[in-house]
Structures
1.
Amino acid sequence: MHLNEEPPVEYSYGTIDLNAEPNADVGFDSQASYGFVYDDSKQSNPEEAYEEKPADSNINWETKEEFMSEEALVGWVKSRALDNGYIVIKRRTKKSKTTGSVIKFWLMCDRGGEHNSIAILRRSGSKKIGVVGPTVGLSHMKLGYMATSMDIGLNGPKRGELDRMAVWLYNEVHESWKLQVINDNHNHEPTQKLEGHPYVRRFTQEEKDMVENLTERHMDPRNILSSIKKHNPANVSISRDVYNLQQKIKNKKKFGDTPMQVLENVLHSQRYIYYTYEDPETNIVEDIFFCQPKSNCWWRAFPHVLMMDATYKTNQYKLPFIQIVGVTSTHQTFSIAHAFVSKEREKNYVWVLEMAKSMLNKCMEPRVIITDRDLAIMSACRKVYPEAAKYLCRWHIDENIAKHCKASFSDADWKKFKDLSKTTKK
């Protein structure tokens, strides 16, 4: 009966006489018979409570068609709404406890509802424009539900009344869905341009298959997007949509496996050279070192310079990620190897450097090693490559100077200082 819905007005609850006759003077006896007394002294004109007036969507929802599936019905509604500048999304569904089939479902405007604030001080945007009271999500569609006098109230609309846009009825005899419209008002004007809307940026199933196939061929997301737009000029997706879809595909493929199992499967299938270090007591993998086969060839050809840097817990696994880079004779950089380590300690870095050293098979070792001022990395380099010259990375030096000193300069003086610094380095 939806008696738990919060009304926009205040009611006083008196003693309920179960033997009393319904009040014949009240227009809707269903609430009066339960002892509800409406207090109009605390309620102003209901029309004045709305901050925004409902806007007629002017969408013709009349149809005698019986839809044979839920998907067909939802698709028809979404297409009709989209043609008129509105986006309809599915809110939730309810299934039968006995058969498990869907007996009702709710659709609503994508801009319906209220933005739920969170208890932190930060600025955030939301497309939710529903206001407190009966105007929340005016285009909300309730499916498989009929409005009654109990829900409308005695004197004015209750919260949620204007949310009902349409009712979907399931015909159990013919196994079809029918549409009955109750209210199709919106509290906002239709959208004139939908190019940037997430709904119209969705991929079709054919485009999803294309993204999956091109991802397996190691094509960049921007090139994948170009291929999709070339195949379908009407597509308005962006690169971020390709990234998100790729992540969904990856998550689907690695379902049931641990991150370590997924990584090891990839390294094995791609024929990477990789080593792992396990704790002797627990047999748990703590460090993993891996190198692409072509990188191994480049490392043997150009072992003269080694650059090493560790990004501290900036990945989704919250582990230090180590990058080892080399330099060719034409001053071009290339990746030698990568590693995940469990701790930011000297022994972990020593193990990584020893793995890189073992790939050279006792050939010429690096003569120059460049790192940032990480004491653990610097100490590990001295132990593994004692004869190599050690230098600090100039880029890290510039970043530290900017971080600690830029605030003391004006913009003009800082520019002069940077120019002078470049001249001195040269």
2.
Amino acid sequence: MSKLSSLQFHHSNSLRKPSPPTNPPLKSNKSEEMKWVFNKFDTNKDGKISLKEYKASVGTMGWGLGETEAVESFEAMDSDGDGFIDFKEFMEMFNVEGKVKETEIKSAFQVFDLNGDGKISAEELSQVLKSLGESCSLSACKKMVTGVDGNGDGFIDFNEFMRMMMNGKKLA
């Protein structure tokens, strides 16, 4: 499920106060960050994501998936067909090198681009982070956007987002 990858986009910001323990590891490898994301979906902490947990998580994030789309995306991730997404299946959205696939980046960008105008504003970033249970002030989100905004227009366009992902930067 490509939209899950959006959860792992976090930007280190030296002006940001240290995060409480529930936040993703800021200086860690991709596997640790993805484990944190996986645990956000695995609300009953049994080591696997059920369809119910998956639908609740994507619903909370405001992805606007209908019942059919949610079931289809869940089933696409559940590669062994056991009715659950385990961590291995969750990680399969990444290629062998651990880099996000371009299609995953595009899907993640679309999750952050709430109004579909082709760019991510600080307001959109703030809204998505809040939907994930992360508190981030608008001022802090503006600083994050500025850190990725290559052309200085105050927004993150897809090329800037792609460059950020390919260079291993983090958004929040």
